[in-house]
Design brief:
Length: about 180
């Protein structure tokens, strides 16, 4: 089996630990993600613990396509000793180097504290230490909080839209040497 393009490694920020996703995170994350308002822009409904466990099992197993890496982290707020959200990156080989499509979600009780921006910055920093040179996110034009996170990380909106969402993009500098 070939080596994945990227993998989720633990990352720490001043307030958060980004922990590689494990199936065992499902029960706690089902509670974190239980607010239907979290799905206002993305559609769907909150998953039950069992459904989230099945989803996490698939994510942890990795993409069936060797040209795609799924990297998923849960966010643990150290001061509160609890999970508060997730970040993810889907990494693919592109013409100009590896491209990562990123996303984030923070549970409603922890929103407004900068956790999403802090985690997304750490995610982009981690991706930039490897072969990823382009980072993109797709954000609903009315989702102002996600747009603010994207801007805080250095992504800028493009003219491209897909499924009603605007593509935001950041080109990372080449690695030294």
């Amino acid at each position: 089996m070939s080596e994945p393009l990227a993998r989720a490694e633990p990352v720490s920020t001043p307030r958060l630990d980004l922990l590689p996703l494990r199936v065992e995170h499902a029960a706690e994350m089902a509670a974190v993600l239980s607010d239907p308002a979290l799905h206002a822009f993305t559609g769907g409904t909150p998953h039950s613990p069992a459904a989230l466990r099945d989803r996490y099992r698939r994510l942890v197993a990795g993409s069936p396509d060797p040209a795609v890496s799924w990297c998923n982290w849960v966010l643990r707020a150290r001061a509160e000793a609890c999970l508060v959200g997730t970040v993810q990156a889907t990494v693919v080989q592109a013409d100009t180097g590896h491209l990562a499509e990123i996303a984030w979600v923070v549970g409603t009780p922890w929103q407004g504290r900068g956790f999403a921006s802090e985690a997304a910055r750490a995610l982009v920093g981690q991706l930039g230490q490897g072969p990823v040179r382009t980072v993109v996110a797709h954000i609903h034009p009315e989702h102002l909080a996600s747009a603010a996170v994207a801007a805080a990380v250095g992504l800028t909106p493009t003219e491209e839209e897909q499924d009603g969402e605007r593509r935001w993009q950041l080109t990372l500098p080449p690695l030294p040497g």
